[in-house]
Amino acid sequence: MASLDKKEESRPKFEITDGALLPTQGNNYLINAWKLTIIIAFGSLALLLFIVKEPYDKIFTVVIKGAPLTFSVTAGAILGSIFLGLFTGLGQIARTRIINLIAGVYVELIRGIPLLVQLIFIYFALGKFFKLDGLPAAIIALSICYGAYMGEIFRAGIQSIPKGQMEAALALGMTRSQAMRYIILPQTMKIILPAIGNEFIAMLKDSSLVSVIALRDILRRGREHVSRTFLSLETYAIVALVYLIITLVLSKLVAIMEDRMKQDVK
Amino acid sequence: MSNKNNPDRKVMVDIQNAEKDFGIVMALKGINLKVYEGEVVLIIGPSGSGKSTLLRSVNRLEALTGGQIFVDGDPLTGPDADIRKIREETGMVFQDFNLFPHKSVLENITLAPIKVKKKSVKEAKEQARKLLERVGLADREKSYPAQLSGGQKQRVAIARALAMEPKVMLFDEPTSALDPEMVKEVLDVMLDLAKEGMTMMVVSHEMGFAKAAADRVVFMDEGEIIEIAPPETLFNSPEEERTKKFLKHIL
Asked: What is the CATH number of domain A29-265?
């Protein structure tokens, strides 16, 4: 056995991982899917912008103007969906039957309708009754959509905490809400962080759907540019690369945050 | 200890005709038991006899389906029941410790005094340090539960329960999850507590502890109390057939 182990170790450290969304710290020393992808993404973008130049540099300056909006929508929707998700998750495990039902129906309803359809519907419904601007409407719509999925994550996370934790807190005289706040939820957050991280990344990509409701995000700017210049392939190539790079960077940030949290637990 | 044989001594836990129906099984079939102030009562019995259910009923982690329990005169169920007050007054120690893994040893102990009893942080910390010294873990206040051995965890759990200054301590198989060499350090802490006059209800099969500290031993089977006697009587000359049979298995 010993000789076999040695053979394994002396192999060159070149390995392709399964390309999980969240690279872990353990993978840092090897060339993993994440590194390979980001090299390809930056390489292609640099090639197009600095070597080929025309018409890509012009396209890039147009498209990147949409980035702030994409970020605002994503950041707003993240906060909104965590807030909604927390209450949905708590609602699903509440001991009052009616609250269970409300939270459950919300989740079933949202999961049963395509995101794009919900987004358009909520946008127009909100617009009809509340006279909202595009940006808050888009944030609210995305929050409602993602709140349901986030609720499921919270529910599963809370339920994964051993029953004894709640019992110990109650036995010390805490109320159920104190126990939730000081004992259950802090432990839940650590467990669900990777799942929430993946949800953030998915949300950033899905924020491109807001381009259908006249918000000038990255994709919308690209589409407008295509309608002016008919450079469809070139424009969408840049749009895709911009999204790819943002997503890869975000997924790395989530992974770093997750590692920090893991070290805290130890 | 001094008032053990005093007929006027105060009843600390008064269990009256307690019933617990789990639907499939009747876990408690009308239990009557009085635990007096300063008394140490050990509850033994085969698994499924209802001994843990009985203990967990005393601070309503299990809600009774019939009967009533009074803790220091306060009812546990009904319109006048103040369950939080009773839980503040009853400390509980669990088989698998249930320490809060995201909090340090000191925070585990100070959390409830600060949040429930509204003690100042300084006061709670001073008290926690005294308790840690008492259970022999003064040097571990900054550790996290994952860094402690089973015996150390259980001693922290006892300190955590004591920080609420309870009138009664409930121990639910406190040494069952421990490696044999760690049992003694936990029992020693419990023995000290008993000597100081704490009222204790203990579900455990530790015969050594029973003989050294228990005033009475309760033998339960199938949701009923079969026999109650001082330890030497119950272990050496039990009256009931079922008690004899059970003792044969564990002694």
From this structure: 1.10.3720.10
